[in-house]
Specification:
single chain; mainly alpha; Rossmann fold; five-stranded parallel β-sheet; 20 helices; 5 strands; globular
């Protein structure tokens, strides 16, 4: 079967800049990725020193070892990584200062939460953006996900016009130039909701880095430890965010959470998990293509088959963890299942399913959802083309890791997944 796209295509300017930069390594231009240097840069940028009593260095240290020894980063990949890590440390410095100056932040009760936990490429973005039109909902827009803590430490009523929106828009423009095809896979908008896994990045305990580059040892270590500390800090950040901009309910989204419903259930008192489902033979290769494009930004040595082997196995593991949680006690009642095909063809009916627990969907909200759909049609940014042969895989390879989930899917919907 012919491959559906050329994974090796990158803008000419991007390849040329990497080539020229790499040729200058002999004169000392290779960017350092070292913990002490990153912390020093963050402290200098913010003028702050305290990373908080709960800052744990080991996740960052293990991430850096993997990035330096396994990821085979190109020069721009090293630059982007350094800026990202300095930004995360700077966010933590600013958050610590806010918690110290305004103790009432952590004294708040966390809002109830609807958390969308479906696998990647199952309509999670579409679903969250629909739910974000409800004025009672608090979401994490992309500009806030990138920079959840204001750049200035001031009381909420004194904050100036937010520069973080401009920063996010510049980031979106940069990504469009680096990877033009990416937006057909996952459209990014500075003002639209984004995955809250980025809040877990600030503890350096999330799958974000693994989704961008080959950091096998770091990823394996993460799977072996209790990630409760990351979610404890995540809740602190949510309280900070709702202090800035109040609402009635959080609507959050990340496939990362599928692995950890047991931790979320402990840390968020009133939580409902919304789980979109899509045929696994579509969602997995679609996600693998997104991962491959991600890796191509950071490295010139990308093996789609290696990515496929790693992430198909990981997907099976994550699904097992989530189904195992659902089978315990009355946990299944905490989930609402959504079918991707129904979401795409009749999203309003799926909204009604979600709002049943709120007494039903009122006409005003229904009108908002319909208007949103007209303004954001399916595949607005182009058609994402992919197939299993791009990764040297067959359906049997997917079945090997996901048969338990396929059986669950069929039972839930009485359909062949």
């Amino acid at each position: 079967m012919t491959k559906s796209f050329n994974f090796q295509s990158q803008p000419l300017w991007f390849r040329a800049l990497n080539s020229m930069w790499r040729s200058s390594y002999l004169v000392g231009t290779k960017i350092r990725l070292e913990r002490d240097d990153l912390i020093r840069r963050a402290r200098k940028a913010t003028g702050l020193h305290d990373l908080g009593h709960d800052f744990w260095e080991e996740p960052l240290d293990r991430m850096l070892v993997s990035m330096n020894e396994e990821a085979n980063l190109n020069p721009l990949g090293r630059f982007i990584s350094r800026e990202r890590l300095v930004s995360l440390l700077s966010i933590r410095l600013r958050a610590t200062e806010y918690f110290k100056r305004f103790p009432e932040i952590l004294e708040q009760e966390l809002y109830p939460a609807w958390i969308i936990v479906g696998l990647q490429r199952t309509g999670t973005t579409k679903l969250q953006r629909l739910l974000a039109t409800d004025p009672d909902h608090r979401v994490l827009p992309s500009w806030e996900a990138i920079n959840p803590v204001p750049l200035t430490i001031l009381p909420v009523h004194q904050l100036p016009n937010d520069k973080r929106i401009r920063i996010a828009r510049n980031s979106v423009r940069a990504l469009k130039r680096i990877s033009p095809s990416f937006f057909a896979i996952h459209p990014i908008d500075a003002l639209q909701p984004e995955e809250d896994v980025l809040l877990l990045d600030i503890s350096f305990m999330s799958t974000t880095t693994e989704a961008m580059m080959d950091v096998t040892s770091y990823a394996s270590w993460l799977e072996s430890i209790d990630q409760t500390p990351a979610y404890v800090y995540y809740v602190k950040l949510l309280k900070l965010l709702q202090w800035f901009r109040p609402a009635k309910r959080w609507v959050l989204k990340s496939p990362h959470h599928l692995e950890f419903p047991h931790i979320i259930d402990q840390q968020i008192p009133k939580v409902t998990f919304i789980w979109p489902h899509r045929t696994i033979y579509e969602s997995i290769p679609s996600f693998l293509s997104m991962l491959t494009y991600n890796h191509m930004i950071f490295s010139d040595d990308v093996d789609p088959q290696k990515i496929a082997t790693r992430w198909t196995g990981k997907t099976g593991y994550v699904l097992e963890k989530s189904i195992e949680f659902r089978k315990q006690g009355n946990n299944d009642t905490k989930f609402i299942d959504i079918d991707y095909r129904d979401l795409v063809t009749d999203s309003l009916n799926e909204m009604k399913k979600i709002y049943r627990q709120e007494g039903g969907l009122n006409p005003e909200l229904a009108d908002l959802f319909v208007s949103h759909e007209k303004e954001h049609p399916h595949q607005k940014h182009g058609i994402h083309r992919y197939n299993l042969s791009d990764f040297g895989m067959t359906k049997a390879d997917i079945d090997h890791h996901t048969s338990h989930y396929q059986q669950f899917f069929s039972t839930t919907y009485d359909r062949i997944p």
